Amino acid sequence: MSPRILIVDDEPSLVRGLQYAFERESFEVDVAVDGAEAVSLALSEAVDLIVLDVSMPELNGIEAAKLLKKMLPSAKLIFVTQQMDPQYLRAAFREGATGYVAKQSASEELRAALREAVSGGTYISRLLQEKVAFAPVAELRRDGSGGRNDLTSRQREVLQLIAEGKTSREIATALKISPKTVEFHKRALMDQTGLRTTAELTRYAVANGIVSL
Q1: What's the angle, vertex CA 97, arms to CA 190 and CA 72, rounded to 5?
Q2: What single DSSP character describes residue 32?
Q3: Residue 132: is its pLDDT beyond 80?
Q4: Domain boundary among 85, 112, 138
Q5: Would you state the torsion angle of the CA atoms of residues 60, 64, 65, 68, taken in this order, to the nearest 10 degrees?
Q6: Most Cβ neighbours (<10 Å): which of 45, 129, 153, 205?
Q7: CA–CA separation, 32 and 44 (whole Å)
Q8: Does 91 share its domain with 189?
Q9: Please, what sign has the CA dihedral across residues 79, 74, 135, 129?
Q10: Cα–Cα distances in Å, from 40 out to 94, 146, 150?
Q11: DSSP for residue 10
């Protein structure tokens, strides 16, 4: 029986290209336009490989991967995405990814990622290899998980509002705390995650499923 691939992406041109390439290689192909549909399909289909984006409506790719891996533990997960920040890479591998491919080089790299996945290996896009060259895959899968799980409920609330673009004063009003307390939580978040800018905190929140894209 031919391997079955599930493509999860809301970009029609990319989906058509991937579907054509996979079908030429005799794969059976299913398509979902977002994470929620992917989870629904996974309930009814035996899927061997899942190719998905990070940025998707309804349910982002990181959260979808978490659910899909529980439902289909033997399925291989390969991300094909424009998100080239190492935080997303770490989040993807933490949820069981075996490959992480840049969309802009997918035509060249995806086949290699598939080969590695089938043979039990892993693949990281050349655009990210230098940034994480110091970290073996096992470390990528550990890195950051403790930080996410150790956040207090208040820290998660503050982080969510930061990621939504709220100012410290707006966060203070929403949570009924002082702006100074907001800044205290923000500094604690930065110390705990090792991040230093609001943009980095926002990416971290998205990558860890605290907010959706």
Answers
A1: 125
A2: E
A3: no
A4: 138
A5: -170
A6: 205
A7: 13
A8: no
A9: negative
A10: 22, 30, 31
A11: S
> How buried is 44 (Cβ within 10 angstroms: 0-12 exposed, 13-18 middle, 19+ buried)?
exposed
Asked if residue 213 is part of any domain, the answer here is: no
Answer left, alpha or beta for residue 83, where phi above 0 means left and psi between -120 and 50 means alpha. Answer: beta
- Quote the CA–CA distance of 198 and 165 in Å, as a whole number: 9
Query: Per the structure block, which two tokens stand in for 157?
Result: 């609330």
Residue 123 amino acid letter: Y
C-alpha atoms less than 13 angstroms from C-alpha of 34 in its C-beta half-sphere: 8
pLDDT digits (tens, 9 = 90+) for 111-131: 899 889 888 889 999 888 876
Report which residue type is found at 159.
Answer: L
Total number of domains constituting the chain: 2
pLDDT at 144 over 60: no
Its domain, for residue 47, covers 4-138
Predicted confidence band of residue 100 (pLDDT cuts 50, 70, 90): very high
| Tokens at 102, concatenated | 């840049």
CATH of the domain at 85: 3.40.50.2300
